[in-house]
Amino acid sequence: MNKISIIIPTLNEADNIGKLLEYLLDNSVYENISEIIVVDGGSIDDTVLKVNFAIKNNAKIKLQNSTKGRAKQMNEGAKRATGSIFYFLHADSFPPQNFDQYVIDEVEKGNLAGCFRMQFDSTHWWLRLASWLTQFSWRACRGGDQSQFIAKSLFEEIGGFDESFIIYEDNDLINKLYVKKQFIVINKKLKTSARLYERVGIWKLQYHFWVIYIKKWLGATPKELYRYYLDNIAAKYKN
């Protein structure tokens, strides 16, 4: 029987993690979930406190500490995971009800990796359009905010996340899956936060994301992408 290990990398997510853990348990079948692993990258807020509180109420929730870096954190979670399917989820993203069964059904049909379509928690017309576009299979419409499921066997085959990427790690993994023709979009909506767009500015952030995408396409290294991110996005957004 296929079971899912949910892996959530966190860094200062006290405002979201408690609500997300409760939501995941309320909107999935208990038997479908091997564990929910929160991999914390050194939070200085109450993230760890809230996870430990959740652990007291449900033994399936696990906490693992890691050095900071989403790729490193997700790989660390995968090492501990016992499920046959890994489901990587951001702390501010809420998958659709019955997400676990949708994922299991796809894997059992031979679709070993994929994501859900996405909806931002914003009414801005551009973010609504960007959300609508995620239903299509175009690679340019992919991103980690949509969450990613992948069979353990396939994850190990492609070597997991490339830890040289401090940003763009999700897209790098997705690119590898597209090359293998192993990626499907489940036509159910995951809702994610537009907080980064709101803090940086919708058009500024979208422009910088496009630049990062083009830079990678033109051959930029992970370090070059990270430097651009630090100079143009991180400087304007503090967790």
What does this structure look like?
42% of the residues lie in helices and 20% in strands. It is of the alpha/beta class. The chain has two domains: 4-193, Spore Coat Polysaccharide Biosynthesis Protein SpsA, Chain A; 196-239, no CATH class. An eight-stranded mixed β-sheet has the order 3-2-1-4-7-6-8-5, with helices on both faces. Helix 1 runs parallel beside helix 2 and helix 9 (202-217) packs antiparallel against helix 10 (222-232).
Q: Strand share of the residues?
A: 15-25%
User: Per CATH, what is the topology of the largest domain?
Assistant: Spore Coat Polysaccharide Biosynthesis Protein SpsA, Chain A
The CATH class of the largest domain turns out to be Alpha Beta
CA radius of gyration: 17 Å
CATH architecture of the largest domain: Alpha-Beta Complex
Determine the mean pLDDT.
Answer: 95
Overall, the morphology is globular
Count of individual helical segments: 10
List strands and helices in order, with pairings.
Elements: E1 4-10, H1 17-26, E2 33-40, H2 47-57, E3 61-65, H3 70-80, E4 85-88, E5 93-94, H4 99-108, E6 113-120, H5 125-133, E7 148-151, H6 152-157, H7 169-179, E8 184-192, H8 195-200, H9 202-217, H10 222-232
Parallel strand pairs: 1-2, 1-4, 2-3, 6-8
Antiparallel strand pairs: 4-7, 5-8, 6-7
Helix pairs in contact: 1-2, 9-10
